[in-house]
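Dear Dr. V.,

Thank you for agreeing to look over these. As mentioned in my earlier message, I'm a first-year student in the group and I'm still getting used to reading structure tokens, so any feedback on how I've presented them would be very welcome. I ran two proteins. I've put each sequence directly above its structure. The first is here:
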Amino acid sequence: MACYIALFAMMNYWQVGRTEELAAQPDNTRALVREFNRPRGPIVSADGVVVARSVPAEGFSTVDFVRQYPTGDLFANVTGYHTFGLGSTQLERTKSAVLTGSTTRQQLLALPGLVAGNTDNSGSVRLTMRHDLQQVAKFLLGGREGSIVMMDPNTGAVLAMWSYPTFDPNVIADPDYDAAFAALTELQADPENPLLANAYQERYMPGSTFKILTTGISLEAGIIDTDTVYEDESEYTPPQTTRPVGNYRGTTCGGDLAEVFARSCNTPFARMAVELGPDRFVAGAERWGIGEAVPIDLPRPAASTIGPTDDLDQNLPLLAMRGFGQNEVQMVPLHMAMSAAAVANGGRMMAPYVVDVELDHQGRVLEQASPRLWQTVMSPSNALTMTEMMVGVSERGTASCCIALDSGIPVASKTGTAQLNDTGEPEKSHAWITAFAPADSPRYVVAVMLKGTSAEISAGTGGRLAGPIAKAMLDIAFESEQPSGPDE
């Protein structure tokens, strides 16, 4: 009896009390082998292209299946990777229970199949993202560092989200552990951080695209309206300094609100920020979600920032610069798309999402995504005013060179050229644009950011460099809506 009690106690100690500890041991691969010996469902794009799947592990005796990514790097920052010895990331990690059929609901639904001998209980995940738009975004960005995001402004559904540099998850999912480990180590050591999804996990100085927020905050505060006029000037000296801030390349600029917004003058927006004052500026930025991680259904999203705010009342020159998107202002590219989307959606900023629906092995819906309001940033009337001003940017302002759509559909936009260099230093800047169309009934919003890592980008402007990319993305999106003709 004593031996029996001792045996019972030790079994409970090891199998119950220390289960998690044993499972975490690096040399205990039983649970991992068990997982790779059962089917794992696919991840599929909105237009039906399989972007992640499991295939038989030919010539690899340890496990029965390995993960494969047929589209290579195209969806890597969203699917992530699932490996035998190097873990999982992105949707492969967060949706693992659905893909393996381990959720309680899937197990209950699978009971009749188990009785009949069917052991494949894997589920699938369908994305909101389209393979065709993702391909276009990859082609348009080419080998330039940056990001492209396209969304539905009314729901928050992400239609395309491409960043470069990126990686091919197949090299990390290689069943040859040594080869996979070497590939992952090389990617982790790369100073360009290809494993980081720049579109939602990184932030950059936005330049004049931030004027969308400054204008929206000022309209809501009632310190400006469509009748507000600014004098022609090339520079403005804020309080507490003798050093002026100037317009882009020293140009003289002024006029009513629509004019200075279309021409993207800096001095009026510096004046707006100072007139708002630190408290109203900071509170207004927070209403736009600044300071909070972007609420996307993917791991480790970044948060946009306007920089330190504790002593802004003693640093009004910095406040002035932040009014036009300089100094320590940084925006996540996805958040910039969301900001334009909020204007397009009557002041309502929707939470972005990439997973449309989760399905069981029989195609039954386990969970369907629902649009979710994240922030209300402005009134519908002020959103309409902002839309009209953004149309002005497209028709006669800084984007008029490059944003007009082939279909003639009206488009609203805002450009940005974020100057990273100090006075006297070699020119270096990011090129931005965000736009939505149709302007009067928006269905698509796009944001493009080109990182200032080359002389070509640093010498250009958001309108001339990022504008054609945004135009092409919108053109393709509208072309894809047209019904195909009859076969000849």
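The second protein is here, in the same arrangement:
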Amino acid sequence: MLKRLEAYFEFSHLGTNWRTEILAGATTFLTMAYIVLVNPAILAAAGVPAPAATAATCLSAAFGSILMGIVARYPIALAPGMGLNAYFTYSVCIKLHIPWQTALGAVFISGILFLALTAAGIRQMILHAIPHQLYAAVAAGIGLFIAFIGFQNAGLVVRNADTMVTMGNLRNPATALALLGLLLMVVLEVKKIKGSILIGVLSVTGAAWMMGLTHWAHSPVGLHALTATAFKLNIRGAMNKGLLEIIFVFFFVDLFDNLGTLVAVGKRAGLIAADNDIPRLTQIFFADATATVFGSLAGTSTVVSYVESTAGVAAGGRSGVTAIITGVLFLAAAGAAPFVGIVPAAATAPALILVGSMMLTTITEIHWNDPLVAVPAFLTLVLIPFTYSIANGLGFGIVAWAILHLAAGKFRRQDWLLYLLAALFLARFIYLGAS
């Protein structure tokens, strides 16, 4: 039986084994575990019952990750997306006074739209229409993005009223602990020790526990709490014309965040072919679209692929087993959500910083001596962390690519979809600027 599973997940071809995949899955889970506490807190502000939101978060993350692992066989974990959950709560439910049940209906419709476009092959066309050098910039930009999040979580970078950001207090015990954790992970990585990131996370967690730096609220929840949100979505209300823009935002941001994450994780894992072809692309898109539909039925906002999956890839994960292990741990977390919070930000921050630094290797694929390539790639690279959005960074890159190539007389008919995407992004940026 194990041999058949190893053959299905291509262990021999990928150069991996069960121990490595299990460690990688646990690493991804520990890096993503914050979502179990953060997502319910955000959705609760919209009126979603917190215990139910916690159960829905764990269940949808488990379902999406396991489905991705089994069907697409990629080490990509899924969970309710940060950014989209804030949009769900603060822009849709609070600002527009839309009930959370109706907002869930909009998420459901966007998921169905994803499935339809995947079946029609349109999402695949979009992926192939974008120049591969922009994807190299996306992968590096996401590296800067998650490293920046790591710096923030470690307290190494903090807000400043005059300069926007500045260096934090290195005397802060959590900050010092995070830096020591980063040093430990790098040393283990240099020594080629498997599971270096996981060992680092667990070591810092243990140290933080002994120093009294871990804090979490005890509020037992379980899957039974889902009764407050499961199948409570209002699809008919979401079909109202006034929610078309909301559905479009859920769809649009999820589409490009997933594309960017897919390329970043795929490049880091070496799973993208030399001709930039991505095997089993349809299955990947099917898994994330189905997870969004499932999540809306369970009671949470849009489910997306997580860039933190790169932590598991950096730990050696190469097959779908990594995602399956992550999913199983999320399922277990549904009953132990209060204890997931024992892993402090100081423990996961160095993992994000280390992985982010490793992802910058893709910038060597960009032709920096060609302004038609360099400027769009640069905009993509820096605007992902500066705007805190993968979709925004990729959008600016696509618009710049199209405008510069038009101005230089390099328009090609076969690139029509790229120019259409640029027009859509430009319209979105103009709309956001006017709102």
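From my reading of the second output: The first helix runs from residue 2 to 8. The CA atoms of residues 198 and 435 lie 43 Å apart. Does that match how you would interpret it?

Kind regards,
E.
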